Amino acid sequence: MNGPFELMVVVADNRQEDVVRNLLDKRRDSLKIRPASYEVLRPGTDGTVRKTAHKFLKQHRHPECHALVMLDCVFDDDKYYPPQALREEIRLNLMKDGWTGENCEVIAIDPEIEMWVWITNSPQIETALGVKWDEIYSIARNQQPSLWPEGQLKPTKPKELLELIQHRKRIPRSTGLVVKLLDPAQPRTRLGLDKCSDPAFKLLLETLRRWFGTA
């Protein structure tokens, strides 16, 4: 589809792009949003998105357009950037280029998008991974306790934990697990959108509803 678009999205990798496309193309009814014309730009790494997202979006700004930027909070050789600081920095750059607080948003995922997979005791996670929660906890807390310390609702290193489980269970590594959990065509693994309490995911849903909601 040719522009101008109602929504321009800048992401850092294919996992983030797949999630955005899944929500906008397949979960509109669940989200209660209308169809919106959109384009996804993928200029490079999370670090590249942090520094240049506003430059890529500047040429697409028009009165009916919205700008959405998505990136992880861990990049640059595993350096951690606080999500609120990243969000404020990128939003400030966007607003310097003419976007407003109403038509731009930044989704800084703390620490990375695999965090959205870990919804404690969800049967959909067991089905998607083919591993029971007892075994997930055993791997995480007995073999690599730093990945998911006792008493925490979610792991501190969600991507490393997912890769460890896939390695131990000889599960083929896939970048599409988050999308699989969101895909309405996968009824055995599909999660309700309200099941994930992660602040970045909730902000993403709230932003799409605010801009394109039908209710």
Q: Which tags fit this structure?
A:
about 220 residues, alpha/beta, two-stranded antiparallel ribbon, 9 helices, about 45% helix
Number of helices: 9
Strand content: 5-15%
CATH class of the largest domain, named: Alpha Beta
CATH topology of the largest domain: Rossmann fold
Q: Structural class given helices, strands, pairing?
A: alpha/beta
For the largest beta-sheet, the strand count, sense and barrel status come to: 4 strands, parallel
The end-to-end distance, rounded to whole angstroms, is 26 Å
The number of distinct structural domains comes to 2
Strand order of the largest sheet: 2-1-3-6
Segments where pLDDT lies below 50 for 5+ residues?
none
Q: Helicity level, as a percent range?
A: 40-55%
How many β-strand stretches? 6
If you compute it from the alpha carbons, what radius of gyration comes out, rounded to the nearest whole angstrom? Answer: 18 Å
CATH architecture of the largest domain: 3-Layer(aba) Sandwich
